[in-house]
Amino acid sequence: MTLTLVLVIAVALVFDFLNGFNDSANIVATMISSRAMSPAQALVIAAIFEFIGPFLFGVAVATTIGHKVVDAGLLTTGLVVAALLAAICWNIFTWAKGIPSSSSHALIGGLVGSASVAKLLHQIQAHAIHGIEDLLAVFRVVRPDGMLTVIVALFASPLLGLCAGFIMIRLVYFFGRLASPRINALFRRAQLVTCVALALSHGGNDAQKGMGLIAMALLAAGVTHEFTVPFWVVVACASAIAVGTAVGGRRQIKTIGAKFYKIRPVHAFTTQLSSAVLIITASLLGGPVSTTHVVSSAVMGAGGGERLSKVHWGVGRQIVVAWVLTMPLAALVGALTTLAFWLAGWRD
Q: How many CB atoms lie within 10 A of CB 205?
């Protein structure tokens, strides 16, 4: 391996670490707020099963990210690093602001921005731009079939999370309408199971994004001759996301677990269960979803299913704004980073 390739792998693992750090709130916030577990216990359990998750759900998401979003013929190690740096910058910014955000949105945005500018620079160098059609051809670097999968997964999943949280809590209230308040103890204990399922689903989906980028870099560098995810890449990415989860983004934990409304055990249980089902389904189908937005929307759905006025919808609006801005801003950062690399002479 060259020093450049080692750098790419290191940056991808930093991305996975920050992904786990940022998204740990999604796994444990409701458990902590409902007093089912202490923060330390919840984060340790989540980290263990975050590590296990990538070994259970295959590499369908990694294949979508690394092989189906942009034209593989354009891949360079510099392009991969630019996309990763765009996602990392957005993760750090939103963590500093305490806003739950999507690493998936940021990564896809960075990848599209980097690839589009790389294509434009290649065309300029080849003197291949003679009109508007040549400029529009820059965007053909994005593969429509893979991008459609990404858009459907990323933009439909929050709506599905909202509906799933709403429906789940209504069902729980219907079937438990004759239960005594002692049922809360059952919901607290059941969260151990739902936390495990959610951690497995998050690790299985989100660790694959780093895997896909490393596999892209290996292919671009000629280490592999077709898109494939070596076992050591799975181990490395699973470890990075697990360590990030163990450290935990406590600012986001406060936002998800306390700012929407006062979360009780029934809300925590229904939110985790509905989110885990959605994310596991997406992982098996190869759809890269945002755990942040699935869980946040499920929390709002569960609260709204009890009483619409219960939810502080203003907090939800902040997350929606971040949701809308993430991809274009990450694309801009990825584009500027690619341009900087090009001007500095890094074109391989």
A: 29
Q: DSSP class of residue 137?
A: G
Q: Does residue 186 contact residue 299 with C-beta atoms inside 8 Å?
A: no
pTM: 0.80
| More reliable by pLDDT, 324 or 165 | 165
**Any idea which residue has 């439909």 for tokens?**
156
Q: Which of 228, 192, 180 is nearest to 62 (CA)?
A: 228
The Cα–Cα gap between 298 and 223 comes to 42
Give per-residue pLDDT as tens, 200-226. Answer: 888 888 888 888 888 888 887 888 888
Give SS3 for 331. helix
Confidence band of 65 (pLDDT split at 50, 70, 90) = confident
Q: Are 79 and 118 in contact (CB under 8 A)?
A: yes
Check pLDDT > 60 for residue 252: no
Domain boundaries, the chain: 3-343
Neighbours of 171 (CB within 10 A): 12
Provide the total of helices (H) and of strands (E) in the chain, helices listed first: 13, 0
